[in-house]
Structure formats: C-alpha cells, structure tokens
Amino acid sequence: MTQTIEYGNLMHRALRRLIQEVLEDVRDNGLPGEHHFFITFDTRHPDVNIAQWLMDRYPSDMTVVMQHWFDNLEITDEGFSVTLNFGDAPEPLYIPFDAIKTFVDPSVEFGLRFESQGDDEVEIEEVEAEDHVEVEEELDIVEVETEDASGDADVVSLDSFRKK
Hints:
Blueprint (H helix, E strand, L loop, with lengths): L6 H23 L7 E6 L9 H6 L3 E6 L3 E6 L3 E7 L4 E7 L3 E6 L4 E5 L5 H12 L7 E6 L10 E2 L8
Antiparallel strand pairs: 1-2, 1-6, 3-4, 4-5, 6-7, 7-8, 8-9
C-alpha cells in the first residue's frame, strides 16, 4: 500500500482514457461537424511505431492531424494505430497513449497537455524520500482560444492558477 494518493498519475490515466473514448467514437461514427485533432507525441517512446523516414525527420516529437483523410483507425487500451497521408504517401502509425504530449481539438477550443517525467520518476522518488522535497506531477489542461482580431491566440493553463 502506498503512503499517498498519486493524483497526478490518476489524472493522466483518466485523461488518456478520455482520448481513447473520443477516438473509439470517431472510429465507430466518423468525425462529427468541424471536429479535428492535433496530436503531438514523443517519437522516442519505445512502443511508437512509425516509418524510419518520419523518425529521422521528427527525432523527438511529432504532431499529426486527424481531419480530412485518415484510415484504418484501431484503438486498444494501450494506444491507437492509424494510417495518415504524408504528401500523397499513406503511412501507418502506432501511437501509445503514454506517448501523447498534447491532444487538441481546435474546433471546440479543447486541449490537453501532458508533462511526462519519463525516466526521471525514479530519481524524483529518491529525492522525495531522502530530502522530503514535494514534487508535483505536472498536468496542464489547456483551453485553446481562437485568434482575436489582432491575430494573437491565448492559451490558458491551470498552472496560472496554482498556489506558489
């Protein structure tokens, strides 16, 4: 039994489950209305599966758009696979939910950003145990605003409301 409730990890799992449910609905019913997604993911995640030329071009992260054309959308509890068009060349991708950094649907001004600790989690736990330092799991839920007349866009994150 753990000594604390790991709210950050619980939130990450719940919000990644939300993405899974959205993609399952799109698989079953298609994209409704003007909905479309910008999904940024960590290409270094060990379970990401993309073509080598994409890995060479995007060695750390990549943003894909699911909007007008996509095919073969399959979802599991661990991630999803989809075929997207890159310059008239269809390419299959597999993206684990744990690799997702951002998920944005600008048509309804909705977005999620995940800050992953990655391999640092063990080191952070050691620091907490040795030095009694509180380390907060970072999770930003962002609201994406549309551009105003000046062409500027605003992103509001929960970080701006956190106690310092």
